[in-house]
Description:
Layout (H helix, E strand, L loop, with lengths): L1 E14 L6 H7 L2 E15 L4 E5 L6 H8 L7 E6 L8 H5 L2 E5 L11 H11 L4 H15 L14 H13 L5 E5 L7 H18 L2 E5 L3 H7 L2 E6 L2 E7 H8 L3 E7 L12 E6 L2 E6 L6 H11 L2 E7 L3 H11 L4
Parallel strand pairs: 3-7, 3-8, 5-6, 6-7
Antiparallel strand pairs: 1-2, 1-4, 8-9, 10-12, 10-13, 11-12
Amino acid sequence: MITVSHLEKHFKLNKHHKGKLSGVRNLFTPQYETVRAVDDVSFTVQAGELVGYLGPNGAGKSTTIKMLTGLLVPSGGELEVNGRIPWKERRDYVSQIGAVFGQRTTLWWDLPVIESLELLQHIYKVPQTQFQHNLEQFKKLLELTPFLNTPVRSLSLGQRMRADLCAALLHNPKLLFLDEPTIGLDVVAKERIRHFIKHVNQQQGTTILLTTHDMADVQKLCNRVMIIDQGKLLYDGKLDALQTRFGGKRELIVDFADEYESVAVADAEVVERVNGRITYQFERNIISASDLIGRLAAQYKIHDLSVREPDIEATIRRIYEEQLLV
């Protein structure tokens, strides 16, 4: 579906002189510096995948998405989406994609939601039967009915996001770009949006590229993630493998049935002890959780236990800060 090879995007920025006559010098002897917003990035996304594209602000996520949607022309490298070059065949290309940006809307501000959707039907030349079928489906999944006749400007953020998702999918796009789709939403609204995204991906086979700062979105939706920082791709792989490779120590929380003066066990460290509850830390590449549990069960009477994985947000922050290139 998406093939990106050695993709680059450079911007030339004015570098201002300082001191006396700086204004004149800026006018007659301008200096520039080159910013590599995207620097030699390569990846592929297969049809039907739901991939998280992650990175801090200024990492190059938005620049990549703008090239993928045809809004920007790359400075170098190759890019092909569904057999098309986005910026060269933009009119035909955009009829096959959908996009939702958390901070912007594709709906008309002063029109009721239903009228915006009907306008988009004509813009994308969606047959009436397909339009009605999709609208009825999305009304049910996104609970649109209560505000279909409400002007967009009067919608809450959660309502507008649901309406934008409907608008982006009316024409059955093969590829959907989602940029911060749950930003600013409450817990209930977030879950509704996530459920819908998962439905569209699994039931309709829509390929989805998701950018977000909400790690709950990533954990609940994405099996595969790509991490970019300072224009370079740091990681591309399974979310579970990311945790295994960079997640640090796991924790085993054990409630003992009896009181023990010492609860030491090989290859694990006691990091917290509260009454009969003990928290152990252990390295996954040294001992597995099942082996550790087996050792404890052989020495002590256990009432209950649970394994706690490292926090995904802390894991990704560590990759950003330490530039853990792969």
